[in-house]
Amino acid sequence: MIHTSTPMFAIASGKGGVGKTSLTLNLATLLAKQGQHVLLLDGDTGLANLDVQLNVQPVKDLAHVLAGQATLSDIALPIPQLSTGKGSVTLLPGRAGHSGLTNVTQPQLTQLLTDLRALTSNATVILIDVAAGVAPAQLIMCAQSTATLLVSTPDPSSLTDAYALIKLLWQNHGTANTRLIVNQASKTEGQQVHTRLSTAAENFLKLPPLPLLGIIPTDKLYSTAVRSQAIAALTYPQSTAVEAIEALLPKLLLPSQKAA
Ligand SMILES: Nc1ncnc2c1ncn2[C@@H]1O[C@H](COP(=O)(O)OP(=O)(O)OP(=O)(O)O)[C@@H](O)[C@H]1O
Ligand SMILES: [Mg+2]
User: What 3-state class would DSSP assign to 211?
Assistant: First the structure.
């Protein structure tokens, strides 16, 4: 792990479609509202999604950075619509279907993440929307982060893939920095998912108990917002899913990392 004071969170899952991108954007919005300066990295090197969901058209993106044609500061795009409080959100956009990004090498990626943390921006939190899967790129992003926010739904395949991510992070990187968020689940389902994953990691990998950050219910307003390229935290702030995301914020940042 790279040591720096800016906390960096990798939002990852193993299985696709479990809610990482929408959670990342809602977390960013709520953190900005609390005064944090959030830097968002589109870590989906194959199929970038954050720009689409935000309805922005970046001129330069990570592909330019990897090609040596731009620096991270050059591509940083302020997102005023998410910067409602005293804080701010800035996007480092990716690009969908670009071979330079899809084929990013491990040293390139490690360098990119090192540069990201050294970026002389005023960021107080870094969030990475990691692609689905357990390929080396995903594992590097998680291993280099302060914590991996592992998103799983109660679906058995999502749970299996979440466990695979915990296992590979531990076996390949010696990293046990995972915290669980169960999405699209009732309280009972969420607790069951937590028990199953934590028990498996404790029994088979001899890891300490897996911290549970939160359980987010299935919420029609939340998916309505996603479909209309809106952010539920802004359009439906009282929705049950947004309230559940808000409830996990105090556990995310240490007291010393909270904005004044
Ligand atoms: N709590 C929720 N309630 C209702 N719908 C949800 C919830 N969380 C996610 N969804 C829906 O699930 C779908 C997938 O969400 P999202 O794109 O955020 O997932 P993802 O993990 O980023 O997917 P991918 O792996 O393809 O990048 C979206 O249509 C979104 O509206
Ligand atoms: Mg996504």
Answer: coil
Ligand 1 centre to CA of 252 (Å) is 21
Taking the centre of ligand 2 as the mean of its atom positions, its distance from the CA of residue 121, in whole angstroms, is 25
Q: How many domains does the chain have?
A: 1
Which residue out of 226, 231, 245, 248 has the highest number of ligand 1 atoms within 8 Å of its CB and is therefore the one to mutate? 226
Does some domain include residue 231?
yes
In ligand 1, the atom with minimum distance to the C-alpha of 184 is 1
Closest CA to 14 of 163, 192, 140, 200: 163
Residue 62 has pLDDT above 50, yes or no: yes
Please list every protein residue whose CB sits less than 6 Å from any atom of ligand 1: 13, 16-22, 49, 132, 183-184, 216, 218-219, 222-223, 226, 241
Cα 141 to Cα 206: distance, rounded to the nearest angstrom: 23
Q: How far is CA 18 from CA 180, 182, 249, in A?
A: 13, 9, 19
Confidence at 120, pLDDT banded by 50, 70, 90: low
- How far apart are the C-alpha atoms of 207 and 108, rounded to whole Å? 30
Is the residue at 259 inside a domain? no
- Report the residue among 18, 42, 141, 245 best suited for mutation to probe ligand 1: largest number of ligand atoms under 8 A from its CB: 18
Is residue 79 one of the residues assigned to a domain? yes
Q: What is the pTM of this model?
A: 0.94
Q: Which atom of ligand 1 is nearest to the CA of 226?
A: 31
How many angstroms separate the CA atoms of 4 and 26, rounded? 24
